UniProtKB/TrEMBL annotation:
GO biological process per UniProt: aromatic amino acid family biosynthetic process
Entry EC no(s): 2.5.1.54
Residues annotated as domain DAHP synthetase I/KDSA: 13-255
Broadest EC class assigned to this enzyme: transferase
Keywords: Transferase
Origin organism lineage: Bacteria, Bacillati, Bacillota, Bacilli, Bacillales
Protein name per UniProt: 3-deoxy-7-phosphoheptulonate synthase
GO molecular function, one term: 3-deoxy-7-phosphoheptulonate synthase activity
Residue range from the parent sequence: 71 to 334 of 344
Native species: Jeotgalicoccus coquinae
Amino acid sequence: KANRSFQEDDSVIDIGNGVKVGAENFMVCAGPCSVEDLDSTVELAIKLKDAGANSLRGGAFKPRTSPYSFQGLGVEGLKILNEAKKETGLPIVSELMGTDHLDTFVDMVDVIQIGARNMQNFDLLKALGQTNKPVYLKRGMSATIQEWLMSAEYIMAGGNNNVVLVERGIRTFETATRNTLDIQAVPVVQKESHLPIIVDPSHAAGVRYLIPSMAKAAVMAGANGLQIEVHEDPENAWSDGQQCLTPAEFKELMDTIKMLLEIE
Ligand code: PEP
Ligand code: MN
């Protein structure tokens, strides 16, 4: 079902509040790695919207490498995102890690993010297939494009065709960056599949200074959107601060992206 031979036209996925992704609809999803508190989330959401973001992303259940790192605010984080949505109208995206909270996520978020570490959690993918929620399916750290598309297929096989693919870098022998952004995945996926593909330069790079150049490269490669981590005070973020832009840096990047989208 994900294959281009099944559907010739690009899929357009409606994530609510008038925001779509796919074909000519460009999605800019931005926000903190982890939701921290109400005031900072709402203030940041307002700035992101002003800069040109059309959806808000924040982690409430976090897949941290260490069990001793901050694990997220849980349902409280989803409530905070909903307050920010009320204030700004931005649809919200958050990561679900297991089937336990599936119903809560269906009720409380606009897009369910499946992280790299769960790309092949087939029970979770099958359960998502039984809903009609838009799903952001991040590429597994060591997944081939075919394996990634097969994971999309698991969701679609159940009847949910609202899948957005997110390239977030893959693990290679290179150590200068956290992961290697596979920019070629954009045209390859678009050749193989009708599903939208967006690029997350934040988790690919793992360092702030690479994000603007990689975001611009993604636009020029024809990506259908971007997912970027932004924090008011990156040095003091509760997770992934080293790869967050400040709101001012994000605005500057967005001004360039808007120009590139006109050229493209
Ligand atoms: C995230 O989006 O915050 C995240 C943990 O990403 P990934 O699953 O791509 O590592
Ligand atoms: Mn993160």
